[in-house]
Amino acid sequence: MTYGNLLNRIDENRCYKLDFVPTIGMGATEYLWSDRRPYSICEYFPNWNNKGFEIVGLQSDHAKRTDNNGMSDSQSWEFTPNPDAPVSYLRSTFYDHPKLGKVKMYEPVHYNEKSKRWNKGGDNIVIGHRSKYHDFSF
Q1: Domain spans of the chain?
Q2: What's the start-to-end Cα distance of the chain, in Å?
Q3: CB neighbours of residue 128 within 10 Å
Q4: Structure pTM?
Q5: Contacts by 106-110 with C-beta closer than 8 Å and gap 24+?
């Protein structure tokens, strides 16, 4: 079932080339129904415990509105890191895409201390760009 903003649904399934490497400070975006929230990469583990996958840690950014457009779709924002924010995690997964060949995607995970494993679930965050949008129609 598709829900919310179509562009958000498309972008949250972004594929990456296998040589894509996340870097500390790189922007990221959490996609909600139609809103978007900015994040920054704060941790990167290229080969988690020699398991063959990457773990990326992210923290939500502070966002300050910089336009004077009121309750408008035309919005501009200024972002600053928030080192006190809780860390969310993504894990790399590899897929054989029918048109692109082997690609990498990042899915939300959380660490289970008891089992010492990464479990699926968490915020749907896409790395590579930082964006903020508030939909005033809700």
Answers
A1: 6-127
A2: 20
A3: 15
A4: 0.85
A5: 106/16, 106/54, 106/56, 109/55
